[in-house]
Each structure stands twice: as structure tokens, then as C-alpha cells.
């Protein structure tokens, strides 16, 4: 029989598994509720209206127990993207929280509400399918066309979560706190399925708040998962908020992901709490690739070293492997953490691989110790200016060290002389700093050729639900 994704569900333990607000499910309750639903699911894919609730968690666990691929759907999705996902994935059923209205785009699909109190009579666990069976179909953000359905096999989920067990020393005693959405890899796979595979527990805040973080970490929780926008809020208040600082000091591990954590925010949190936030790097198609280890050296601005089982290389524009420390190249990976295919897109699947290596499109350097530093996306964050290849990320970190810069994004735009000129998009903190002042600031911290030639001021940077800056909306 294949290995079970969630061995703790079969233990019958009366230990807290999921906690959302006033609702808690123990492992025996989750096994009974998800088991009852699993036995009623149709063959084929099922859509999950992925609200940040225990209902979403039960729905996904039930689908995994039944061996039915689940398609999590963002509740904020637009009409066009929803229509594409429905026609592409052809779900036989949509699972939803009771009382939640669904858009017209799902009206033709049978609906089943999740009853958290439904229990099955005691029965032997369902036989789970093999390692290569599809577990989830997670749709990409669709920045370069319609969203692609990333088919993630059970093997990828198990490999990533077990590699993180090793890297983060994750145990059944850990209690995770997070407030991430449940339609994507970070919040759903790492944040819900991760604790369940370990036999630990998760407390979901529903909505992120500093009071919620302080309350849960102060009440026995050991780990916090967040995105940089959350840690930015923490960094802005932790020095003056002793309750928050005390709670963070007591945590075993603080983890940031989904986008680069500005070094300035990392430093402010460390100064107030002594905690050094762990960064990791992954994608929908690859799940997790690298992480700073819990027992390893912390290097601000890096995403650590490859996880167990993951091979990583940097490749130059000529296709040759880059081994020189500090040289920028595209990250390519291979290993058991990778997806199987893009649903119904054999062309896109083939184009994504280079002789078995997945082309991430992310640009990075490696230091002599093997630590990876992401400098940006190949499409939007690699700027070729005056004969230099410049990563936007290091300029953004430098700009954030200016006392009057709250947020920063860097893009390139065509320049007749330089090829591309560096453009800084700034959300000021107080009086907007002059463009020349910012240029001198960057030139002093980095080198003159990395200074912004143009500065534009905004009230806020455009971000998606995971906190990533949408640079295409800036013209980058």
C-alpha cells in the first residue's frame, strides 16, 4: 500500500489538528469528517472554493484521502479567470463553506457544502493512490497569459514537506500560526498540509493582525509563516510593542516566503527580538527548492541552500552552467518536488524544461557556501544597463535603507544610451526624498552604475494576494 500523506489521521488521537477562530478540529474529528466526505466524492477533479476556513482544509484533506485531485480557487477571482479554470479543469463538483455565495461561473457545477460535524461510521481508511497520482491542480497567476493549471503529484507534496521537516527541524510538537490564503502553495500546502503531515497543529488567524500573532505565539505556538508585507508591519511596530516583541522572542522559528524579505525589515525584527527570520524559496511548479536551515547560518537577503533531494544550478544566457560565486544566472532545478505537467498544455510543459531541469525564470547568485540570493525575475527584474546585468532586488534593499522610503520597487525601461535605465518606484515615509538624494544613496551603498536614473512616487505598490509586487502594473 502506498505511504499515507497524513499518518496521524489514522492514529485516532484526540489532539488539536486545526484551529480557526472559535472552531477546532482534533485529529480524530478531522479523520471522521474528512473520511465521510472522501467516501462521497465523485471521480475526476473537484473544485474547492478556498476561503480561509476549516471547511477548505477539510475539503482538501478529503480529496487527498479519496485520491481525487483538488482545484483550489481564489474567492477573489475575476470572471474571466474563473471561466478559464472551470473550462480547463472541468471539475465534477465544487466544495464550499455553507452559506457562502458562489459566482455565476460555478452555477453549472454541482455544489456540496462542507459539514464539519458530519461523521462516518468507523471504517478502514481508504486506499490512497500511488506517488505519481495528481493531488492538486493549482493555477498560476497568469501574468503572461491565461493561468496554467500546475498538476502537483502526491510525491511532490510528500517530498517538499519531508525536506522541510529536515531543514526546519519540524516536529509533531510544533504549533504553527499563519494568516495566509488557502488557494496557493504557501498557505495551503505548507501552512495546512505541512502541520497535518507532521502530526502537529495549525492555528489560522483568518485575517492577519499583530494582535493575533502576539496572542497565538504568546499562548504556546512555536512557528510563524508570513509574507514580507506581514513582516513589514511587524518590523514597523515591534520596537514599541513589547507584547509583540515578547511573543516573537518565544517562537522557535519565523519563516518568510512568497517574495523577498527586505533586509531592513529583517534587521529591525532581529534588533527588537533577537530572532533571525528564515527565508525559503519555492514556486507553484516546484514547491520548495531552498531554505535557510534552522540549525544553519542565517544570512540576511538569502534564501539558503537547496533542500534535501533538490538539485539546483545557475545557467547563463549561453546555456552554460555558472559556478563562479557572485555571478548572476537563471535558477534551474530538478528533484522529486517538481510538478508533473501543466494541465492540457503539453507545449508549455515541454518549454518549461531544459533536459529534465525546470527553468524557473528566477535570477540569482550563489556564494562560496552555496547560499542562494535571488536578484529578481528574468522577465522583469534583470536590468541590462550600460553593459551591466543588474538585479532589481539589491537596489530595492538599498532604497529601503533610506529613512524616508517605506516601500520600493525597481524596474527597467528602454534607454537609447544605456539599453535600459533603472527606474525606482517609491512609497515615501514622510517627506518624499529627492531623486538625486536616492541616486546618491544607492551609489554609496552599491556602485554608481546601479543608481536609479528615474524616480517615481506612489501612494502604494500594486501587490497580489501573496504580497508580491505586480511589476507589470508599473510598466516593468
UniProtKB/TrEMBL annotation:
Family matches, as PROSITE patterns: AMP_BINDING
> Which superkingdom heads the taxonomic lineage of this protein's source?
Bacteria
Where would I find the AMP-binding enzyme C-terminal domain in this sequence?
394-468
Residues forming the AMP-dependent synthetase/ligase domain are: 14-343
Q: Which InterPro entries match?
A: AMP-bd_C, AMP-bd_C_sf, AMP-binding_CS, AMP-dep_synth/lig_dom, ANL_N_sf
Q: What is this protein called?
A: Acyl-CoA synthetase
Report the Pfam families cross-referenced here: AMP-binding, AMP-binding_C
Please report which protein family the annotation says this sequence is part of: Belongs to the ATP-dependent AMP-binding enzyme family.
